[in-house]
Amino acid sequence: MKISRKTFGILSNGKKVYLYTLKAGDLSLSLSSYGAVWTSLIVPSGKGPAADILLGYSGFASYTGNKPYLGATIGRFGNRIGNACFTLDGRAYTLYQNDGQHSLHGGRRGFDKRCWKTECYEEKDGVFVRFELESPDGEEGYPGNLKAAVSYGLAKSNEIIVNYEASSDAPTPVNLTNHSYFNLSGEGSGDILSHEVVLYASSRVEVDKNLIPTGKLVPVENTPFDFRTRKSIQKDYMAAGGGYDHCFVLDGEKGALRPCAEVFEPGSGRVMRVFATQPGVQFYTGNFLDGIAGKAGSVYNKHAGFCLETQHFPDTPNRPEFPPAVFGPGKDYHEKAVFAFDW
Ligand code: GLA
Questions:
Q1: Ligand 1 test: best mutation among 81, 208, 244, 288, most atoms within 8 Å of CB?
Q2: Are 137 and 170 in contact (CB under 8 A)?
Q3: Segment 49-103, tens digit of pLDDT
Q4: Structurally, how many domains does the chain consist of?
């Protein structure tokens, strides 16, 4: 096991950004202190050479204008908040509208655009980087001074271990997630439509045409959203509206680390299994990717990668019927996810 650090870039305010590389088992994961971004993940294959399976950019500069949130850590509240406002304890809060009239992924300057404090540590079975930041009361319109910490670790067992934590001095919505785009045949190798997927979800969050929840959780049975038995993304994605960008309701007890998804890529034999404590997972098939200049000449177009963003349901601050996502004094936020690889 090994952790190394190098300078990744320098921000206009003179602040140094570091790139960490964790090696454990057969994997190598690189992460940046800017945006707590996963920049690369090298995974072997039983059928060919190892490959970097994460979409990303060639150099640091592009990460400061990372519109699709490639690899980024998202906060204070991941996914959409309808009409960029919510009411909490009788008070109305207004957020920045960065997705039409709605708020997406933390607003104008979410956690993906922040420099995180970092600390590396080693445990018996893995190597970790812990990222921390403080988000002051009123930042991006949210109440409460929030302390957020995310630790990303690589275990000898070829797993990425993710621990999300936050505490606040006043009640506030929190929904942290990671927005990595995977292509299990290697970034830049075309689209992900032939990947085969299982989602451990019997229902999904119904959304309107702007991807804002209607409040209903609808069964996936007999719909293009049924991934309870393995099928290719290709099979029903047109019937689903030309791709997936939906929050699935994970089966099993929320709060317990339980199966979330499994993705298999037939060409390389690579498999990724995801486990999560959160109530849901946003399965996004890169529908909005359009000519993104990626790593070493790669160009990412529609469906060049997929995301599995483990999270609370979108628009929870406006949906009392959803599992609550308000944390604060006496109620810290703790969630966990695991991404396990095989080939
Ligand atoms: C999320 C959303 C998508 C899109 C991407 C970023 O996954 O659900 O609709 O906005 O982020 O491009």
A1: 288
A2: yes
A3: 999 999 999 999 999 999 999 999 999 999 999 999 999 999 999 999 999 999 9
A4: 1
CATH number, domain at 227? 2.70.98.10
Backbone angles phi, psi at 303, to 5 degrees: 70, 20
* % helix, strand, coil for the chain, step of 5: 5, 50, 45
Catalytic residue among 187, 309, 312, 335: 309
**Active-site residue (options: 102, 179, 195, 246):** 179
Residue 49, burial from CB neighbour count under 10 angstroms (0-12, 13-18, 19+):
exposed
Q: What is the pLDDT of residues 278-300, one digit of tens each?
A: 999 999 999 999 999 999 999 99
Q: Which residues pair with 43 in a beta bridge?
A: 51
Q: Is 8 helix (H, G, I), strand (E, B) or coil?
A: strand
**What would the DSSP string read from start to end of 29-69?**
EEEETBTTEEEEEEE--SSS--EE-B---SSHHHHTT-TT-
Q: DSSP secondary structure string, 80-139?
A: EEGGGEEEETTEEEE----BTTBEETTSTT-GGGSBPEEEEEEETTEEEEEEEEEE-TTG
**Assigned token pair, 274:** 């995801």
The token pair at 211 is 């991807």
Q: Alpha carbon of 76 to those of 41, 111, 194: distances in Å? A: 25, 7, 33
Q: Length of the chain, please?
A: 343
The reply to whether ligand 1 has any atom less than 6 angstroms from the CB of 104 is yes
Cα–chain center distance at 9: 23
Cβ of 103 closer than 6 Å to ligand 1, yes or no, is no
Distance, CA 178 to ligand 1 centroid (Å)?
A: 12
**Which domain, by its residues, includes 55?**
2-342
